[in-house]
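Sample entry (322 residues):
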Amino acid sequence: MKASVRYSYGPIESIQIEEIPIPEPKPDELRVRVMATTVNRTDIGVLTGMPLLMRAFAGFPKPTLPVTGTDFAGIVDKVGESVSGFQVGDRVWGFSDDGSGTHAEFVCYSIKRPLLPIPDGIDFATIVSCAEAAHYAYNFLNKVKLETGDHVLVNGGTGAIGSATIQLLKSRGIRVTAVCHEIHVEKVKALGADRVIALEKEDFTKEKIEYDFVLDAVGKSRFSLCKPILKEGGIYISSELGPNWENLTLALLTPIFGGKKVIFPLPIDILDSMKVIQDLLLQGKFKPLIDRSFSLDQVREAFSYVASGKKVGNVILDLSGN
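Predicted structure, serialized as tokens:
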């Protein structure tokens, strides 16, 4: 089978497309013919092994799995001898943030890992775009007490995490102000944001409005800059560790002193996230934003595009034609 591989942590240029043997499922695994997968920020972390903490999960001193990729949607091709509840021909999707080897034509995946059947009427690209970023957004929001009428600022409204966050907030009746590039303002409004700030025209950290929460979905701001626009007792959440891992340090220190604080939530319980997002998708309350698709042969280009920071929503690897 064709797969995107690298054998040590390194840059995008280390990725190669190779022909490797089709794997055989272990007793508790499904073999899935991958139809769609994403290239995302987690994939870049697993590829590079940066931050170094990533290697504690993805393997040390080298990646546990040579094949890149963390999520997938596809069709069950073979089942392990101890598997129940799934059969050949089932449409399934899964995600594991420590690397799953999904940038390949086939993947073997344990039913003990986060895995769900795909509902009828949902295509592969849409459902796989409900995995990585939506999971992080859901977990970030679950770490704070949100109440109807709260006002939340989302920095990075066009990213996969930011666009998911906006929709999840609106599904809970929260007021949302989002920040994005001017060219994408209308797209972010269409996601449901009550107000959109074009970052080329206005510095959101200089606003006179105070927010209950600031969620930096792209990790490009800092607590010190956002603190003035937080209400007393307001909370800053970032999707990144920040310079010198400051968000982790601040998450430990700021609650001690009271007032405005930082929360750095570790995303857990992937299966619960998948169930919630899938339900919202079926209810019409969530629709993942998809930027563009690449073929498996274009995997380097896909990684480079994600790394550029220019993507709008999710980036798909389409393997349906393989």
